[in-house]
Specification:
By secondary structure, the chain is α+β, with helices and mostly antiparallel strands. The protein is built from four helices and six strands; from the N terminus they run αβααβββαββ. Strands 1, 2, 3, 4, 5 and 6 form a six-stranded antiparallel beta sheet that branches. Bound molecules: zinc ion. The site of zinc ion has 9 residues, from loops.
Length: 149
Amino acid sequence: MASVVTKDPLFFALMKSQRSFIDYSLDKRATLAALFRGTVNACDADPYLLRAAKFHGVKTTRPCPVCKHLSMVELMYTFGDQLGQYSGRIKNSDELRQMEKEYGEFRVYIVEVCRDCSWNHLCVSFVLGDGVERKPPRYTRTLEDSDWA
Ligand SMILES: [Zn+2]
């Protein structure tokens, strides 16, 4: 699967409902500048994020801006009221294509993570969905529920 942040117009062309696109590259440049000045530590991906990167990350063709290794992956997080308990999940592009038909509105956040030096940053976000207002799915018990018996 190809990276969606790098020049891959196909992905965005397929995401018919995409809107409210936000590019965080200015913020990323500022973070990198501060990092190289030694005023911030942006190579601080927590174990959960690193684990997600290992299992769900989509490899990119860009080198890490910090360590220059080709070890960067992207994660696509989905958030929205209409997603109910499933808000905050990581999705792949096939799942997003399905979801944009099933939900009125949700936002996708693409985070890049370096698996070598733990650099991590939000790249872009955008809204998907068919615009039809829907109630969140009815709450379903999952194994993640602490009171599961
Ligand atoms: Zn790195």
